[in-house]
Specification:
With about 425 residues, the chain is mainly β. It contains three helices and 36 strands. The protein has a domain of about 190 residues.
Length: about 425
Amino acid sequence: MKKILYACLLLACSLLTGCRDKCQKTNTYWGVESFKVTLAEVRAAVKTVAAKDLVKTGKIYVKDKYLFINELRKGIHIIDNTNPSAPKNIAFVEIPGNVDMAVWGNILYADSYTDFVAIDISDPTNVKEVSRTKDVFLNGMIDGISWYYSATTGEIYDGTWKKIVTTQEVNCDLEPVYMPIYWSSMYLSYMSDKSISGGSSSASAATTGGGGTGGSMARFAFSDKYLYAVTSNEMKLFSIASPTQPAFTSSVNLGFGIETIFPYKDKLFIGTTTGLQIWNNQNPSSPTFLSRFDHTRACDPVVVQNDIAYVTLRSVDNFSRCGAAIANQLDVIDVSNAATPVLKKTYQLDGPYGLSIDQNSLFVCEGSKGLKSFDASNPLDLKLLQHFKDFDAYDVIALDKVLMVIGKNGLQQYDYSNKNQLKLLSTIPVKEIE
């Protein structure tokens, strides 16, 4: 009986495996996984580290001798701009999910995904978080990509993806599976093992009293003892009567498609994808709607000088967000009677972004098409003076005859004391990512 059983086992072994040693090999796969972060991780991360290279720049802000440059989702570069011809990158403040910023005195205010954070920058190389208003923003947009907070999981999903690598032990007899493999939130594609590559200075007190200057793409703005932060549909009001302990006071519904805010006199000018909103701000604790100037759907920053609002409309870079109509232009709007704004003139441009005006000098960014400077002595007869085409221009600040331009290539600064011939002062390039 035992001989018969042994013979049966040998036959089964022969049929199923050939009774030989199994060969195993390791396959390596790569793919992407939705990036997510917990609130605990976000709220434990604010700190100063050594100066870093610019990689993916966002907005800019100026306060006294310091220039602040947002690194999308990562934090803020602090640049000592005492000499614009030789700016010094002195520190980096890590702030997860950061996009916007503003500075009052020695306090830097910044968004950090869901939270509004106050940071003491008296010593830019050793900043200290002094206050945090939690859960004031529950969703937002970074570089055209939406993020949101899930109360169910307690995590923030920011719409981006991170590369992942995984390995798998398989039988040598099995052919590699080239079809995509789905696993949880990961999308994996087969890839052979060999094809994956391995992949400060000190500073004195940062600022003096009062607020600084932001670009036209700003979503933060000061008025009196209040800071306003606009989201895609609301304006959040914070009292900064005690700068180190800002107090969230209220939210004002603005509708949809809200993009930028620009304070002028006792008014707030809100740029939206469907028009320019003007709010009466005589009582800074309670702004009230005054009027709006409608336009075709397009992305829309605004600056104001001498009761003339300059509004750029752009719809070429992001069809779904900026609108279907081809509206790449600069509108000149008379807001001397803010209750009834009047369009005075329209100039055709090529995909305009941010803009800035100082007296008779107007500067307009056109993304990959560069930067244009205009003589704005007569707003109804703008004269093109120069067109810089060799760099990307996203936003610009013209202040005290120094022009600061930020874009995908980095930061460029110009002397515009002679508006007919801008002089390049310095460049801080971005680091090329392989």
